User: Which sequence fits this backbone?
């Protein structure tokens, strides 16, 4: 399986595409990530149009099974973050 781009490669590609410096692109990306984290934490979702949506979901406690021993165990309730890919992204990639 092919390896994805590194952070440095992504920054260089975006900087070249938009005609900005790598430092400006890095600052923008850090700001975008910070806003995404804060908004998802506060409101439960953050949308990047054309790419997808970060969602904060609460999972209820449930019963599970230890695969090694077959013993039933209780899995505690927890909050998880999911990413739902936008239809436009699916259509352009597939």
Assistant:
């Amino acid at each position: 399986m092919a390896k994805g781009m590194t952070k440095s490669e992504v920054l260089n590609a975006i900087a070249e595409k938009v005609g900005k410096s790598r430092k400006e692109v890095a600052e923008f990306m850090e700001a975008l990530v910070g806003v995404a984290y804060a908004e998802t934490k506060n409101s439960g979702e953050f949308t990047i149009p054309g790419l997808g949506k970060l969602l904060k979901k609460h999972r209820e406690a449930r019963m599970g099974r230890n695969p090694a021993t077959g013993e039933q165990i209780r899995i505690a309730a927890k909050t998880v973050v999911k990413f739902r890919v936008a239809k436009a992204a699916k259509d352009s990639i597939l």
